[in-house]
Amino acid sequence: MNFLSSKDHHRRRHHQDLNINGDDMHSNNHTSTSRSSDSGEPSHDSKWVPKLLTDCAKAISEGDSPKIHHLLWMLNELASPYGDCEQKLASYFLQALFCKATDSGPRCYQTLSSIADKSHSFDSSRKLILKFQEVSPWTTFGHVASNGAILEALDGETKLHIIDISNTLCTQWPTLLEALATRNDETPHLKLTVVLTGAIGSVGAGSVMKEVRQRMEKFARLMGVPFELKMISGLNHLGELTKEGLGVQKEEAVAVNCVGALRRVRVEERGGVIEMFSSLNPRVVTVVEEEADFSSNRNEFVKGFEECLRFFSLYFETLEESFGATSNERLMLERECSRSIVRVLACGDEEESGGDDHHHEECERRERGRQWSERMRHEFRAVPFSDDVLDDVKALLKRYRPGWSLAAAPPPSEDGIYLNWKDEPVVWASAWKP
């Protein structure tokens, strides 16, 4: 929808430059948030962002050009990536709404991806991941639950093969190596096959592989665990993986670990990827995904927008509670969200499946735990986490600020466990066997 007239060209260029480059939109004190009128201006209520953003999404859906102009202008005046949590949300969602309104989502997404690729390095990514894990259980929750399920499923085996599909640069595995080193029986041989996806898998993969390999091999030697590391990168689709390509041997006890990986697969192709996992005859498959539904409402823009805003509001709130106000790590994590938000809201499925192989898998279509359960049950049966694993997860959560909790999956599925933030589920972890 190209609703902007030629006289608005300068304003469009202004918005586009500001949003794509992630600069501060306006550094005023936003005293206008105390205003209230029937025109949709924000009231004194500090939670002005959800209504204003949703009103703008509705205007875009309805093609109401004057209202779109008005609301985008208001958001641009009030939003800031350096303000409070509300202003930050407004800033990043404004970018996506502008892209949606001007049909510039794919171009903006490519620009954001290019910027991210150029700034990517192994050290910076690893430091950010480790700092995030230090202050928040958002990723460590899934690591502890998955490691526990994998160790129990492979107990007593002498040749282990873990296929790791995640982008956490092997930060999950040192604790598992320690556990293997202290087993009462013979220390097993561990082969770890890491499948690199997304930006890490396509840009600088060689340097990433080298750094990760050196660190993991050094730690395995320190632990006295026979260890072999293989990495696979450059894939356009997880469905390209095969038993032969993964080097699965008949005598190996296989575990498949998926952390935030399945949401990057196109919705229509997820069943095929799960079938591929089944063909590996694994002892266990662990799946960890963020709890949001960006799939079923993808053809209903306003409903999809509301779900996207709900999820990222929770995520930004956890970052605010976990990091200091001036934390660079927090700002980096928030900026990482900008690309996901644009991808979900301003890029249609035709762009997600388009000819740019570099971004083929990054569809960002999250699904809720119950939705993943329905998919997984076609090939696997759910395995409950043992009391020992649940105790480990509870002990982990005690290391962090109050507000985090462990919750069982509600009926009817009752598959997996949830990480809750202030009683809202945000991450789902599960274990499956053939």
UniProtKB/TrEMBL annotation:
Record localization: Nucleus
Species of the source: Acacia crassicarpa (northern wattle)
Motif range (VHIID): 160-164
Protein name: Protein SHORT-ROOT-like
Annotated keywords: Nucleus, Transcription, Transcription regulation
Region feature (Disordered): 1-46
PROSITE patterns: GRAS
UniProt-annotated stretches for the region VHIID: 129-194
One annotated Gene Ontology cellular component of this protein: nucleus
